[in-house]
User: What shape does this take?
Amino acid sequence: MQAIRSTFYLFLSRAILVAGLAGASAATAAEPIRIGEINSHNGLPAVGQAYRNGLALAMDELNAAGGVRGRPLALVARDDEGDADQAARHARELVRDEQVVVLTGTMLSNVALAVAREAARGKTVFVVGDALSDAITLDRGNRYTFRVRPSTYMQAAMLAEQAARLPGRRWAVVAPNYEYGQSAVSSFKLLLKQARPDVEFVADQWPALGKIKADDVVRALRQAKPDAIFNATFGHDLQQLVQAGNRQQLFATTRVYSMASADVQSLPLGEGEGIRDWIAVGYPWEQIATPEHQRFLEAYLKKFSQRPQLSAVFGYTTMMAIGAALKKADTTDSDALIEALRGLKLDSPLGPIAFRTLDQQASMGAFIGLVSQQDGRSSISQWRYLVGSDYMPDATYVRSRRPAAAMK
Assistant: This one.
């Protein structure tokens, strides 16, 4: 009897131990995978909110499908207020205190570079969704940083291809005097001169971000008498530029090629103040008939009851890429996630994309067309979607600028 009793208690103890381990395992499996987002939600409220909406929509879809190995994804957000130092502090705190396994976000390029530096120091994967500067994946790139949106080089290449067809030779540029603007102008000048060695740049205007003196800028541009203008201003600065340019009739005889995307279609301009047939990067959200975009659009409208901005596409695709990488790696280890992201292929609302291993840049493309405003409404016509992989810098160019350590 004693032997039977001993055997019974041994069996019971083992059963309790197994049950405890199973319960612990289930609890661990239910723990969320934390994603840290850093963005300018107050400084760029409409764009920042649209980006976060895209993240939230993708996260909902991923979690509804079971998350990653049964673990839901959770977002921990911080506002950088457009300040690079504040963004860097947030990045350190999110990794150290909130135990996030991936960082994402950033709209301003100088902010993205600050977060990328901290991501490398903390050995944490950082997937940039919106910031544009070439330096993010080239000169100051690191092995932990990836980007979804097409870079300044890629978008400048698209616009330069169109600009090279213009008979005029005299060009002026206007861009905010910080990382993104400098990168955009540098790439556009390089690529347009390659296509048209005969062009000359007769005026450069570099207003401080958010502090443009638009009448002075327009006056200087008019005095240079350019045939065309390359614009990289956005947001409030772009609004001021358009209003001053119309007042001084700068655009009556001068063609504009613009890097601005969503904002160029949604500026709060009054009657007679709008844009007329600028060749620009845009987002014809209501005209895209592909099944993948229709699915995204219907889900977005149902969840948020408002039209998506282009930044929502970037946010959605970024979160989908993070989810796909976590599933592929089957771990939250950073080195494994890097290998999972390099060469990763996935579907986006704009079609299939892939992260190139060489520079960790995604092949998402952009829409180029004629953007106009009339009666308070914006439109983009004669647009084409240009596949990003056709406009990425070649391997020789990348290796000449990207640190060797970033490619290990």
